[in-house]
Amino acid sequence: MIQAFAEAAESTAAAAAAAEGTAQAAGPMGMLLSLLPMVLLIVVFYFILIRPQRKRDKENKNMLANLKVGDNITTIGGIVGTITKIKDEKIVIETGTRTEKQLMTLERWAVRDVIKPVSAD
After folding, report:
1. What is the Cα–Cα distance from 27 to 120, expressed in whole angstroms?
2. When you count CB atoms within 10 A of the terminal residue's CB, does the N or C end of the chain come out lower?
3. Alpha-helical segments (H) within 46-114
4. Which helix (H) or strand (E) holds 18?
């Protein structure tokens, strides 16, 4: 009986050691699996939010750098005019009709977009 008890204790200890080895091996893998949804969420946010915003910022910076005299522009305030003079970070635009022209001085960053003329195609 004592021998049967000793054999049962050894088999239980062996099973516990095997289970502990499996738990240790699954530890890093289990940790990676628990972090996987967080990593996927960050990747999705990058491709849906961050990347397109950076692309728009780059296009806007490029548009502002390429402003030239004669461009028809719209400001962030909705004013439409033609650039008549560019000085560093300031631009002068001409607004109004042919008979009533008004000059305005604006910051370069206030330009929302350049109005492309409609082609005659």
Report:
1. 69
2. C
3. 51-65
4. helix 2-45
- Sorted by where each begins, the domain ranges of the chain are 1-66, 68-115
**Residue position matching structure tokens 């008004």:** 102
pLDDT digits (tens, 9 = 90+) for 26-57: 678 888 888 999 999 999 999 999 999 999 99
Sign of CA dihedral 90, 65, 85, 83: negative
74 and 113 in contact (C-beta within 8 Å)?
yes
* 72-75 and 90-96 beta bridge pairing: unpaired
Measure the CA–CA gap between 34 and 28, rounded to whole angstroms: 10
* Among the listed residues 82, 84, 63, the one whose alpha carbon sits nearest the alpha carbon of residue 72: 82
Rounded-to-integer distance, Cα 107 and Cα 88, Å: 9
